[in-house]
Amino acid sequence: MTNAELPLIRIESLSKQYKMGGETVHALDEVSLTVRHGDFVAIIGPSGSGKSTLMNVVGCLDTASSGSYWLDGEEVSRLRENKLAEIRNRKIGFIFQGFNLLSKLTAYENVELPLIYRGVPPKQRREQVMEALRKVGLEDRVNHRPVELSGGQQQRVAIARALAGNPPMLLADEPTGALDTKTGKEVMGLIRELNEAGHTIVLITHDLEISKQAKRVVRIQDGRLSEEEGRTA
How far is 213 from 203, CA to CA, in rounded Å? Predict the structure, then answer.
């Protein structure tokens, strides 16, 4: 099988324990999950459900206590931090609730930054940055800094930054949490369009209405997963 034929994400019997006050907390309890290329999966759960822990493991920001995690054909469960950082940079585009844009940089420079870290040559960087900004409808805002953009435009820049370099997965953490209802709907519409264009999206949320935008809904409660029906069209 080629990597394209394999699941993008394959998690098997994955657990994560923490020590708190002398007690062992099971943040993730024998979790298994498969996400295929082109999928759109929402992981929903309340505070304390294990949702953030699962996001950190899926995003290679943390490692599990036991079990296995394959990302794009590569076993990443036991990698050291420097290797995980390389994986994050090459294979995951992050979309954060708080945008996480650098205030002194323009929209163009914010989108360009991860490509610089990746060692992409200047000409290729420019092509990829402009393509990403075009996809989110901000090619006319390349020289604007975050303070000169609305909240919705800032999140679009953050989405463009995640798209730059075309990583296999977009990982969105409460992407509408800092936006008003109307702007949130516009951003979710954009995320759906990106999925329909072929991008694989894993979305973390506590909002049932937001989760319904996904093709698949996976609920997490007490560190365990159960799958529910997502949208049909």
Answer: 10
132 domain residue, yes or no: yes
Contact 179, 187 (CB under 8 A): yes
Q: Which two tokens stand for residue 192?
A: 């759906």
Q: Hey, what are 39's tokens? A: 């999928």
Could you tell me the two tokens for 57?
């493991």
Q: Domain holding 216: CATH number?
A: 3.40.50.300
Instruction: Please indicate, yes or no, if residue 135 is contained in any of the structural domains.
Output: yes
d(CA 229, CA 188): 18
> Structurally, how many domains does the chain consist of?
1
Domain hosting residue 101, numbered range: 9-17+32-225
Tell me, yes or no, whether 122 lies in a domain.
Answer: yes
**What is the SS3 assignment for 165?**
coil
Computed on alpha carbons and rounded to an integer, the radius of gyration of the chain in Å comes to 18
The pLDDT tens digits along the chain (233 residues) read 555 578 999 999 999 998 887 888 889 999 999 999 999 999 999 888 999 999 999 999 999 999 999 999 999 988 889 999 999 989 999 999 899 999 999 999 999 999 998 899 999 999 999 999 999 999 999 999 999 999 999 999 999 999 998 999 999 999 998 899 999 999 999 999 999 999 999 999 999 999 999 999 999 999 999 876 656 44
Sign of CA dihedral 27, 29, 35, 41: negative
How far is Cα 95 from Cα 200, in angstroms, rounded to an integer? 13
User: Does residue 39 lie in a domain region?
Assistant: yes
